[in-house]
Amino acid sequence: MLHEWRSLLADRTLWFITPLFALLIGYGVYNGMSWVRFQQTTLATVRAEEQSRLAKANATLRALEQPGAVGRAESAFTNPRLASVAGSRSGTRYAILPPAPLASLSIGQSDLYPYYFRVSTQSRQTFLTNDEIENPTNLLAGRFDLAFVIIYLYPLLILALSYNILSAEREQGTLQMIMAQPVSLRHFVTGKIALRALVILSLAVIFSLAGFLLGGVGDGSGLASGAVWVRLLLWIGVVAGYGAFWFTLAMAINAFGKSSATNALALAGIWLIVVLLIPSLLSVVATSLYPVPSRVEMVQATRRASAEATARGSQLLSKYLEDHPELTAGGQADPNDFALRTLAIQSETERLVEPVVAHFDQQTLGQQALVDRFRFLSPAIVTQAALNDLAGTGIARYRHFLGLVDEYHRTWRNHFTPLIVQRAQLRAGDYDHFPTFLFREESLGSIGRRVLTSLPGLLLPALLIGWFGLRSLRRYSLAG
Amino acid sequence: MIRLIAQKEMTEMLRDGRFRWAAAIVLLLLLAALLMGGQHYRDIKRQHDLAQAETREQWLKQPAKNPHSAAHYGIYAFKPKMLAAMLDRGVDPYVGQSVWLEAHKQNDFKYRPAQDSTAVQRFGELTAATVLQLLIPLLIILLSFAAFVGEREQGTLRQLLSMGIRQSDLVWGKALGITGALGLLLIPATVIGVIALILTSENGLPAATLSRMAWMTLGYLLYFGIFIGLTLAVSATARSSQTALVILLGFWIVNGLIAPRAIADIARRVHATPSAFSFQQTIDREMQSGPDGHDSADKRNSALRERVLKQYGVDRIESLPVNFAGLSLQESEEHGNTVYDRHYGALWERFEQQNRLKQLSGIIAPMLAIQSLSMGLAGTDFFHHRDFANAAENYRRLLIRKMNDDLTYQAVNRDFSYQAPPSLWQTVEEFRYDAPTTRTALAQQRLSLGLLSLWCLASLTTAIVLAHRLKID
Asked: Which residue of A156, A260, A280 is in closest CB contact with B126?
């Protein structure tokens, strides 16, 4: 073992790979961090806008309430005293999805998903399409983040270190000499692999941790909580599991006793299949089995529904008021009230579009379920899903956020609907008491469960291949 | 002599099981990609055609209403696909597919298809372009990394050269051999591709598609040429076939995987773009400073009022022979147009700068050049998206102007209760979009094409030069 350590140290490949690996990881973490910082700066501007808007509305109201104040005649679209204006414009709050503590380690899908919504009494379609500006060519290329380094490049470094672990010794004729010593071939190989795994894995962990700590964590409060450390631990577990898969694979290929060049070819081919071909094929299968009805159709369905609802406006309104007697609270509502009419039309439009949206959700969920089930076909997909989960940049946390937003949207509407129906006049200070959105982090349990089901997807193939490799070593011919 | 060597190389490759397997897999993937691409193209085309017809009908079927409410109702524009898009989906999954054209606002394109896909899509999509850009180069490397170094290792190189074969003949022979073997794969693939295009299209192969495909083919041939030259060059100098393979695989990885992402990140840093929020805030601020179309009594409209009163030589709005509300709406629209032109113009120019930097980086990695060229010719790059966005925006401006003009000249001395007859909707022409010509698309790709030619020339020359200095052992 000591000898092997010395010879590994003498290996030029290692001295070439270590700084390269450090560089790649450093650059990846740095990129992830600048994206998180960008999001945080944007969110700060978003919060500032909300603050100043609410303060302005409060000030206007206070001025109007001064005895003898002559306010400027405000239209029904801008008067901050009207609940309809407050609920759809002047008083709205943002629902914000803050970057998770490990967000800088994997950008994942977070460059595609909106991370703040301005929730209002209007339908959810009006605020849900809140995309961040990005050159589509960059989105296509993808980001150079730590997850990219881990998924694509880390296996290559592992393979570069170990594709000729036995074949080189044999080609140089040193293998026979070593086998003359009192050490079994199995021990020799496992030792070699274990040593390399130790080196690469500690490099991966140390470099990512260093970059992560140097750059600061999420919003700064993260490090203190134990949850972050659990996530980090799971992160390391996934990276180790993925590494184990590639190391055992290299060993098994070596055990076939072919030449170094053949080994390199075979390993490169497997890498290509695992990292590029299976994912793109799976993506194709998922989209053809569960074709998402195009958004184009959804746009049109919404327009049809809204036209239909608008045409029946006043009729809808009286029905709406009949259906919700609690809203008028005994008083009479004005059937010509524009705000009220809008409310009724919106609620009808949403009812009409409901089946289209439901079908849409069902198909996307179907795709996701299919991908989740078949991710075990490729350790690369397993790793990608797990890393995104841990970084909070995958579909799960986003869906969790959307759920909270829906809940908040309902609360918001329930707060404003009676006020609009009763044509309540808001007073200064009311703006401070509107419902606010509070993001509750996904429970660690649900993340942990998803990641822990993924880990066997990495370790099982690794163990299987390892066992198979060790078995074939028995028939290994030293002379070649 | 060259022919003899080429023949020998080709026969050897065709007998090689590895080549057969690899070629079969690549061909199969290419076929699947074409099939999927065609299916996808047909789906999208059908949906967009239907939707476009429906949105037009909705526009026409509006009842009598105030032209400004019609302007607010607006119309949707759906991005059409070019036939060649089935070969390379380019940025299409990452840009919105439709835009709402309404009064006062230049809207963004909404609904990026990638948002509705799973994260596996980010591994890359299986399109003909992916196969051609990533897999065929790999196949070339596998075929020929041992071309010289293998002969040397087996000792056949000494024999060959002792027979008095010129080294340049050897290089050309080898290159031709590889090309021949590849041709056996690529010619059927191209034929299948053309057939797939014809089957997908409803009206045969339009000339525009044909010329785009021809240039695309040229681009890819240059790209393959680069890899053939490079592989032979490395094979001529490497100490062992193993070293040659490792070097070539390394290049393949840097070229195909690392460079596109790394350069995208660098481009993003060099030409930074604003956040959507601050972008919108700036626009809103500038819109505020302009005239308010909805409130003609607003003091920001006083300049317009003065001007119009003077023009018509009257002293009261009420005595104007036109409707002032219509004029002020159009005035605010014009102001908005300059604001949008400035900001969207600047933003999109940023994107173009980033993309140009990527094209230029083709000098480091030919992948970036071929990607740009391929998307550009398939009509799925940002340039084409921008072109469509501009066309839709121009249509929006035309439509809104028609509505405002009607209000100005038909609703004299009337307020917003004025209702235009449904015949007004007919006067707005249907939205038609002509995609950029091949020449325009190609003009964007001059740099890519130049860099590809340069790379190809350089790598083949290097191969010849190095083969001349071939060491026998």
From this structure: A280
A261 CB near a chain B CB, below 8 Å?
yes
CA distance B98 to B112: 9
* Contact at CB, A133 and B126, closer than 8 angstroms: no
Angstrom distance (rounded) from CA A237 to CA B197? 48
* Residue of A56, A118, A140 to mutate, testing the B interface (most B Cβ within 10 Å of its Cβ): A140
Range B95-104 average pLDDT:
91
Quote the CA–CA distance of A160 and A168 in Å, as a whole number: 12
Q: A133, B274: Cβ pair inside 8 Å? A: yes
Higher pLDDT, B207 or B424: B424
Closest residue of chain A to B244, computed from CA coordinates: A261
Residues in chain B: 473
- Written in H, E and C, the secondary structure of chain B is CHHHHHHHHHHHHHHCHHHHHHHHHHHHHHHHHHHHHHHHHHHHHHHHHHHHHHHHHHHHCCCCECHHHHHHHCEEEECCCCHHHHCCCCCHHHCCCEEEEECCEECCCECCHHHHCCHHHHHCCCCHHHHHHHHHHHHHHHHHCCCCHHHHHHCHHHHHHHCCCCHHHHHHHHHHHHHHHHHHHHHHHHHHHHHHHHHHCCCCCCHHHHHHHHHHHHHHHHHHHHHHHHHHHHHHHCCCHHHHHHHHHHHHHHHHHHHHHHHHHHHHHHCCCCCHHHHHHHHHHHHHCCCCCCCCCCHHHHHHHHHHHHHHCCCCHHHCCCCHHHHHHHHHHHHHHHHHHHHHHHHHHHHHHHHHHHHHHHHCCHHHHHHHHHHHHHCCCHHHHHHHHHHHHHHHHHHHHHHHHHHHHHCCCCCCCCCECCHHHHCCCCCCCCCCCHHHHHHHCHHHHHHHHHHHHHHHHHHHHHHHCCCCC
Residue A401 in this model has a pLDDT that exceeds 90: yes
Among A384, A197, A193, smallest CA distance to A274 is for A384
Longest CA pairwise span in chain A (Å): 106
A268 touches chain B (CB under 8 A): yes
Contact B275 A299 (CB under 8 A): no
Distance separating alpha carbons of residues B343 and B335, to the nearest angstrom: 13
Chain A 4-63, CB below 8 Å of chain B: which residues? 27, 31, 34, 38, 41-42, 45-46, 49
**Sign, Cα dihedral of B131, B133, B138, B140:** positive
User: Which positions in chain A touch B267 (Cβ < 8 Å)?
Assistant: 135, 138
The whole-angstrom separation of Cα B211 and Cα A273 is 34
- Read off the pLDDT of residues B145-197 as tens digits, 9 standing for 90 and up: 888 888 888 777 777 777 777 777 888 888 888 888 888 888 888 888 888 88
C-beta atoms of B47 and A294 within 8 A: yes
A109–B119 C-beta distance less than 8 A: yes
Closest-CA distance of chain A to residue B271, Å: 11
- Residues A254 and A264: their CA atoms lie apart, in Å, by 10
A369 touches B at CB < 8 Å: no
CA A287 centroid distance within chain? 19
Label the pairing between strands A116-119 and A93-96: antiparallel
pLDDT in tens, A22-43: 889 989 988 999 999 999 999 9
A394 and B119: CB-CB below 8 Å? yes
- Determine, for residues A395 and B118 on separate chains, whether the beta-carbon distance falls below 8 Å: yes
Q: Using an 8 Å CB-CB cutoff, list chain A residues near B124.
A: 276, 279-280
Q: Do B246 and A307 touch (CB under 8 A)?
A: no
Angle at A108 between CA A293 and CA B355, to 5 degrees: 85
Record the tokens describing residue B473, joined without a space: 């052992």
Complex ipTM value: 0.92
